[in-house]
Specification:
The complex is a heterodimer of chains A (about 260) and B (about 325). Chain A has about 260 residues and is of the alpha/beta class. Chain A contains 7 helices and 13 strands. Chain A has helices at about 35-45, 65-75, 90-105, 125-135, 185-190, 200-205, 240-250, and strands at about 1-5, 10, 30, 55-60, 80, 110-115, 135-145, 150-155, 160-165, 170-175, 195-200, 220-225, 235. In chain A, helix 2 packs across helix 5 (about 185-190) and helix 3 (about 90-105) crosses helix 4. The longest helix of chain A has 15 residues, at about 90-105. Chain B is α/β, with parallel strands linked by helices. Chain B has helices at about 15-25, 45-50, 70-85, 95-105, 215-225, 235-240, 270, 305-320; strands at about 5, 10, 15, 30-35, 55-60, 85-90, 110-115, 115-120, 125-130, 135-140, 145-150, 165-170, 185-190, 200-205, 230, 260-265, 280-285, 300. In chain B, the strands form 4 sheets. Chain B has a 7-stranded parallel beta sheet with strand order 7-11-6-1-4-5-12, sandwiched between helices. A 5-stranded parallel beta sheet of chain B has the order 15-14-16-17-18. In chain B, helix 3 (about 70-85) crosses helix 4 (about 95-105) and helix 5 packs parallel to helix 8. Chain B is elongated, with a radius of gyration of 22 Å. Classes of the chains: A alpha/beta (about 260), B alpha/beta (about 325). Chains A and B meet through helix 3, helix 4, strand 7, strand 8 and strand 9 of A and helix 3, helix 4, strand 7, strand 9 and strand 10 of B. Strand 9 of chain A pairs antiparallel with strand 13 of chain B. Bound molecules: flavin-adenine dinucleotide and adenosine monophosphate.
C-alpha cells in the first residue's frame, strides 16, 4: 500500500499578514503544521512493519522542505515538494488543483490530511482535492483502520459519532485526537538526510501557471482591518502570584 | 444576484445554523432559493418558505439518504446549473464544509470560508472574515461565479420572514462514481446524557494542556469551589479523557455563562464558537501566543498545574 500525507509548512509563533500583498508573511521561521504531525503519525502506524510506503507531499516555498524533512525524520520514506513562484498566493481552488496533480502522480491507495492548517484554519482542503482525484473522502477521523481494500473511520459530528466505511483508494482527514505524534529520534533525523527529497515545479506536474497562484484563484482579499476590540482585556505573566490576581479580578467582576 | 442556500436537516428538523444563513440571504434582497437533500426533504420545503425561501429544491434520492458529502456535491452542481445561481451559501458544519469544498473543486468556484457576515457593496458581494485566530478582519471577495461562502457557526439568528408557500422543484442528478463510495455503517448519539453545562452560570473547561485525564480533577475542584460545571474541548473528549456531553464548541454544546475559565485550551475557532458569548473569560495557558488570549478578559500566561491548585484554595478560603 502507498500512503500519501499532505503536510503544510506554516509560520511559527504569531503569524502576520503582509499589509501590502495582503498575503501571509512567510518570510519568518516556519514549522510543520502540528495538526499534520497527526496525519504523518497515522500513516506510520498504518504502515507498521508492512511493506507499505509513506510519501509526504507539500505545496510551499523552498523552505517547506524543512517540514517535509521533519516528516521524514518521523519515519516517512519519501518527500515531494511542489515549489513554484507561480503557485504563491493560491486559494482553495488553485491549491487543490496543484496538490491533486502532485498526488495523482504518486497513485496512492490512501491520502491523509491533517485536521486544519494552523495559519488558515480552513479544515476544508481535503474535500476539494478528493473531488479532483475522483475519490471518496471522510473527514474528522478520530479512529482509522484499513482492512484489505477498504477503510473504516470513526468520527464526531454535530450529532454524535459516525462510523463510515469507504473503498480504497480514498482520502481521509484525521482529527488531532487520533494519536500522539512521535518525536523524531536522533537516528531518524540523521536518516532523513539520505531519503529521497524531490522538488517539482508546476511544469513538471503539467499544471499551467495561469491555473495556479493568484491567476488560478477565485477568491480575493480586498482589505484588512483591526478586529473589534474586547474592551479592558488584561494579560498577565505568572510570577507565582497569578492565583491571587485572578481572585482579585473575579472579585472586581463580582463573580466570587 | 441569484442566491442558493444549502439547508441541512436532521430527521424532521432544519438546522438552525442554515436557517440563519437563509435569513441573512433574504436581507440581501432578491429571490432566494434553498436546497434540501435527504430523507424527509420534501416535507421541509414549507418550513424553508417561512424563513424566506421563494423556491426550494428537494432531493430524496436513495444516494443522499445518509449525511455524507459526496452525493450532495452532485445535487448542488445540478441545482446550480439548472437554476443558474451565482451565489451558494452554507452554514458551517462537518457535512456542509465538505460539500462546499467539493463543490468548489467541481465548479472551479471560489470558496470563502469562516465568514461571519456578508454584504453588498456597490453591487459586489463582500465577505467578512476574521483571520489568523481572529487577530485581523479581512474583507474578501470572489472573482467569477458561482461564489461560494461558508459561514462560521452561530453567525446569524434564524428569523421567520413570514414568507408564503415556496415553489418546490425536484432534483435528481446523475451521481459520480466516487461520490457514493463512502457509506455510513453506524451512528451513536450520546449528546443528550450527562450533566447540563448549558444552564451553568460558571463553566470551568479543560483542554489538552491539563496533560492527562487524571488531571481533570484540577478542573473539577475549581468548578466545585466556584459553584460551576466542567466543560471540555473536542481534543480531550475524542481522546477519551472526558465525556462528550461536556464538550463545548462547533460539534459540542454552546454555552454563555457569566464566567468561563479555560484551562490549557488553545482557543481554536471551533472551540471559540461554543463559548465566545460568555460574559467574562479567564484563561490560563503556558503559551503566550495561544489564540485564546485574543478573546480573554483576563489572560494568564502560566502553568495550570502551578496556578489552579492555588486558585482553588484561595476561592475556597474566600467562600469560607
Ligand atoms: C469540524 C471541526 C469541529 C470541531 N469541533 C470542536 C468542538 O466542538 N469543540 C472543540 O473544543 N474543538 C473542536 N474542534 C477542534 C479544535 O479545532 C481544536 O483542535 C481543539 O479545540 C483543541 O483542543 P485543546 O485546546 O484542548 O488542545 P490544543 O490545541 O492541543 O491546546 C492545548 C493548549 O494547552 C496549553 N498547555 C499545555 N500545557 C500546559 C500547561 N501545563 N499549563 C497551561 N497550558 C498548557 C498549550 O499551550 C496549548 O495552547 C473541531 C475541529 C474541527 C475541524
Ligand atoms: N500547502 C499545502 N501543502 C500540502 N498540504 C496542505 C497544504 N495546505 C493544507 N494542506 C493539508 O490540508 C489540511 C487542511 O488545510 P486547510 O483546509 O487549509 O485548513 C492540512 O492539515 C494539510 O494536511
Amino acid at each position: 500500500m502507498r500512503i500519501a500525507v499532505c503536510v503544510k509548512h506554516v509560520p511559527e509563533g504569531a503569524p502576520r499578514l503582509d499589509p501590502s500583498t495582503k498575503r501571509l508573511d512567510r518570510d519568518g521561521e516556519g514549522a510543520l503544521n502540528h495538526f499534520d504531525a497527526n496525519a504523518v503519525e497515522e500513516a506510520l502506524r498504518l504502515k507498521g512493519d508492512s511493506g507499505s510506503e509513506v510519501v509526504a507531499v507539500s505545496l510551499g516555498p523552498a523552505k517547506a522542505m524543512d517540514s517535509l524533512r521533519k516528516a521524514l525524520a518521523m519515519g516517512a520514506d519519501r518527500a515531494v515538494l511542489v515549489s513554484d513562484e507561480a503557485a504563491a498566493g493560491s486559494d482553495l481552488v488553485a491549491t487543490s488543483r496543484v496538490l491533486a496533480a502532485a498526488l495523482a502522480r504518486e497513485e496512492p491507495d490512501l491520502v491523509l490530511f491533517g485536521q486544519q492548517a494552523s495559519d488558515s484554519d480552513g479544515a476544508v482542503l481535503w474535500a476539494a482535492v478528493a473531488e479532483r482525484l475522483g475519490r471518496p473522502v471522510v473527514s474528522q477521523a478520530m479512529e482509522l483502520s484499513v482492512d484489505g481494500g477498504s477503510l473504516r473511520v470513526k468520527r464526531q459530528t454535530e450529532f454524535g459519532y459516525d462510523t463510515i466505511e469507504a473503498p480504497l483508494p480514498a482520502v481521509v482527514a484525521v482529527s488531532d485526537a487520533i494519536n500522539e505524534p512521535r518525536y523524531p529520534s536522533l537516528k531518524g533525523i540523521m536518516g532523513a538526510k539520505k531519503k529521497p527529497q524531490d522538488v517539482v515545479s508546476l511544469a513538471d506536474l503539467g499544471v499551467d501557471p495561469g491555473d495556479a497562484g493568484e491567476s488560478g484563484s477565485r477568491t480575493t482579499v480586498l482589505a484588512l482591518a483591526e478586529p473589534p476590540a474586547r474592551g479592558g482585556a488584561r494579560k498577565i505573566e505568572d510570577d507565582g502570584d497569578a492565583a491571587r490576581e485572578i481572585v482579585e479580578f473575579l472579585t472586581e467582576k463580582r463573580l466570587v | 444576484m441569484a442566491i442558493l442556500v444549502f439547508l441541512e436537516h436532521r430527521g424532521t428538523e432544519l438546522q438552525k445554523g442554515s436557517l440563519g444563513v437563509l435569513s441573512r440571504a433574504t436581507q440581501l434582497g432578491g429571490d432566494v432559493a434553498a436546497v434540501v437533500a435527504g430523507e424527509g426533504a420534501r416535507a421541509l420545503a414549507s418550513e424553508a418558505g417561512k424563513f424566506g425561501a421563494a423556491k426550494v429544491w428537494v432531493c430524496e434520492d436513495e444516494q443522499v439518504a445518509q449525511p455524507l458529502p459526496g452525493p450532495r456535491v452532485d445535487v448542488l452542481a445540478q441545482v446550480v446549473a439548472e437554476g443558474g445561481y451565482d451565489t451558494v451559501l452554507f452554514a458551517n458544519s462537518v457535512l456542509a464544509a465538505d460539500v462546499a469544498s467539493g463543490l468548489a473543486a467541481r465548479l472551479d468556484a471560489g470558496l470563502n470560508w469562516d465568514l461571519v457576515d456578508v454584504e453588498l457593496r456597490g453591487g459586489e458581494l463582500v465577505g467578512k472574515r476574521p483571520a489568523l485566530q481572529d487577530s485581523v478582519y479581512a474583507d474578501v471577495g470572489w472573482s467569477g461565479t458561482p461564489r461560494l461562502a461558508l459561514f462560521r457557526a452561530g453567525s446569524f439568528d434564524a428569523t421567520a420572514a413570514g414568507g408564503g408557500e415556496p415553489e418546490v422543484a425536484e432534483v435528481s442528478p446523475s451521481y459520480a462514481a466516487h461520490s457514493a463510495g463512502a457509506r455510513l455503517v453506524g451512528q451513536d448519539e450520546e449528546k443528550g446524557g450527562g450533566p447540563s453545562i448549558e444552564d451553568a452560570e460558571i463553566v470551568v473547561a479543560g483542554g489538552r494542556g491539563l496533560g492527562g485525564p487524571e488531571n481533570f480533577t484540577l478542573a473539577e475542584e475549581l468548578a466545585n469551589a466556584l459553584g460551576g460545571a466542567v466543560g471540555a474541548t473536542r481534543a480531550v473528549v475524542d481522546a477519551g479523557w472526558y465525556p462528550y456531553s461536556a464538550q463545548i464548541g462547533q460539534t459540542g454544546k454552546t454555552v454563555s455563562p457569566k464566567l468561563y475559565v479555560a484551562l490549557g485550551i488553545s482557543g481554536a475557532i471551533q472551540h471559540k464558537v461554543g463559548m465566545q458569548s460568555s460574559s467574562v473569560i479567564v484563561s490560563i495557558n503556558k503559551d503566550a501566543n495561544a489564540p485564546i488570549f485574543e478573546f480573554s478578559d483576563l489572560g494568564v500566561v502560566g502553568d495550570v498545574h502551578e496556578i489552579v491548585p492555588k486558585l482553588t484554595e484561595l476561592i475556597r478560603q474566600r467562600r469560607g
